[in-house]
Amino acid sequence: MTATAEIVGRGNSDGARLFREWFADLTAAAAEGRGAAYVFVMGSLAELLRTFDLPIVFPEINSLQTAVRRVAHEYLAEAEDYGYSPDICGYVKADVATQLRGGALPMGRIPKPAVSVLTNACNTYIKWGEIWERMHGTPAFVLDVPGSRAAGLRPGPGDADFEGDRRYVLAQLRELIPVLERVSGQRFDVDRLRESLRHANTMSRAWQRLLELNRSRPSVFNALSDGTIFLGVANALRGSAAGAAYFEDLVEEMEYKVAHGIGTLTEEKWRLVFVGVPCYPIFRRFNELFGEWGGTFVNSTYLWFASGGTNLGYQYDLAHPLESLAEGLLVSVRDAMDSMFFQTGILADMIDAFHVDGVVFHPIKSCRTVSTGLADNRRALMEQRDVATLFIESDMMDRRVVSEAQLKNRVDAFFEGLAARKASAALAQSRR
Amino acid sequence: MTTLFAEWRDRPLDDALAACRDLLDDDRFPTVRRWREAGGKVIGHFQVYFPEEIAHAGGLLPFKVRGAAVEPTRAESHFGSYLCSILKTSLELTLSGRVELEAFFTHPICDAARNLAAVWGRNTPYPCQIVYLPQNANSAHAAEYLRHEYDRVRRVLEPIAGRAIGEADLAASIAVYNENRALIRELYALKRDAPWQLGADEAYVLTAIGGLLRREEHNEILRALLPQIRGRPAKARDRIRVVFEGGFCEQPPLDLIRMIGRSCHVVDDDLLIGLRWIVSDVVPDGDPLGSLAVAYLEQSSHSPVQHDARKPKGPMLLERIRAARAQAAIVTAAKMCEPGLEEQVVHTRTLDEAGIPYFVSEFEENMTSFEQLEIQLETFVENLLFE
């Protein structure tokens, strides 16, 4: 087997395998009647939870899997029958139905929640935790991580406002530990936390490098399709040796691809940035709509916020594990929130660094956290940069608001516009 | 001090109430304009709760941004499709120039509202910030954190005020607001104990104008009108007593509240709950910002947008119903309001378990037709009366 055959594609196949194994472990835990820690992708605290040997469940990931596997509508209908409105988050509703089904999902079965740890990066996380409180009596620990107060207002260590926030986050971590001890029946072990943070450091470093590597031409992975696999592993295996090793291998693969000029499956004609949450009900087809025109996603805000700000590559100080965890959480979750609320500058930087031809804004019905500001962000971005943009609305879960034909029309028109811009620019260049 | 609203003075009660209603209905916001014309500065703050005392202590006019019955013609293009109305109409107020501000604050009360400071900030030249009210109300460190956050707000406001906002200023403002909260509690006690004395819409108007006035003026109005309302001739009516739930952020149209009041006695509600968030006097002396922070956490009401393990949503609704001696509940939510719609499930299931009848609906601040809703509500009420 050639080196190329050994390395290229490894990240996707290993990622899928790790993901299957993770879910098999959850199914086994459910069968044993063990309780799990339910967490979310923005500030999961997997680094800490792992040290208590708690199975970690990511309801967002479970829910999106129902959409990718084209059964989301069954779950949504069940939750709506229970009383939930068609106008609320589809992830929440899929999870409500999952709970009503005793944890049954297409990939297996998840254990019941023994505790939920929720940051405020998304308010719906908190409402979601309240649902488990009522359904199962699960204690909901809200880990409040204050975000940026305004665009560009990001105080750092030493600043009084930053220190105030850090003290608050640290105090909450110290309050969380006894809760986890009680739920898990295990004492907190700072050395295990140190070990977990070390793996998280490796993963964060690699994640940051991974994003950088996609600046190359051709890009070495598709931020929307491949990126979602990487995100799954980054969340599910954060703080584990297997997760760290996966990402070291992944960086090796992408560096190899860069060195050998190997791109994605798409013959890259247009470099795009994706802003929003993917259209999971037609996940593959949605990507094809762009790929058929030679468009590939070289970066996305999704890889920023849905990794909980791992893009920063924050490195924990292992000499001060808990204090550093608090600071890392504050800095990273704040960054995740910034990439949703204050993203104009971030997108402008991406356009420059990744040589981007167009930006695709994809607000969705289900998620107001991500979607509310996108139209205004688009306006602001177009004032800052002469870049083509596309604004298409659908959903991450609910196929009732996904119209493939309409999406295709808009995407086709977008690429025709891109081609016209390019031709016009070439003409102007030739006249100079 | 500039008088912002004199139209109610020296007029019979009904005329004074009509003047208050006209003020609330006026989408040109005359009190805010008068304040500015007199050289005053205005601080806008979005629903649900904001520590107005800090702005008031700096001689600034806190203006409660809570949407309006206006068409969001300019704001519409700044948002996507699946959004509550209040966000759009609130932005419309500033884009259309109806309200001019020196600063704007919003809070992470919901996924949509937390975006508002960013959107607002990209379209206005003045400070637009998020106030991170603590979402972990059960942390022993939450009050200290919040005191620091309030101090940060003070530091943002001081350059606008053009002076330091000192402890004495804060203590004086807290005293004004303590009186205001006491008067609103009195209004709600009247609503609860003798609901035939004032209509649901009248009670709402008298509360809501507080968001448009210096509280000294609001206090003066309540001090003058409450005894008159209590003393006006009215016959006790045997109507169904209901609690209205779902008005913590976007507000139902006044006509909708009036329509409900025609069928039932609304004996308690969560309308504009931020104005009544703190339920007892704040200690003005010592550390006023610290007192405000403690009051937010420890002397406060409840709403769908604050998580506090001590205030589980279902039991809190039952307590509101019990305290108001209500027989039923109207469980509403603004269209596209994520926390409100999620809470409806909790409330209806709680009420089912408790055997308390309820009426479920959705509303939008700009809705104008209530005929269908009125028929449904009357049917609901009749069913209860003839049960």
Protein model, in words:
The complex is a heterodimer of chains A (432) and B (387). Chain A has 432 residues and is of the alpha/beta class. Chain A has 18 helices and 10 strands. Chain A has one domain. In chain A, the strands form 3 sheets. A 4-stranded parallel sheet of chain A has the order 2-1-5-6, sandwiched between helices. Chain A has a 4-stranded parallel sheet with strand order 8-7-9-10, sandwiched between helices. In chain A, strands 3-4 form a two-stranded antiparallel sheet. In chain A, a hairpin with a 2-residue loop joins strand 3 and strand 4. In chain A, helix 2 crosses helix 10 and helix 2 runs antiparallel to helix 11. The termini of chain A are far apart. The model of chain A has no long low-confidence stretch (mean pLDDT 96). In chain B, the strands form 2 sheets. Chain B has a 4-stranded parallel sheet with strand order 2-1-3-4. A 4-stranded parallel sheet of chain B has the order 6-5-7-8, with helices on both faces. In chain B, strand 3, helix 5 and strand 4 form a beta-alpha-beta unit. The chains are: A alpha/beta (432), B alpha/beta (387). Chains A and B meet through helix 7, strand 6, helix 8, helix 16 and helix 17 of A and helix 5, strand 4, helix 6 and helix 13 of B.
Form type of chain B: globular
Helix and strand content put the structural class of chain A at: alpha/beta
Q: Could you name the ranges of chain A where pLDDT drops below 50 across 5 or more consecutive residues?
A: none
Please state the structural category of chain B.
alpha/beta
Low-confidence stretches of chain B: none
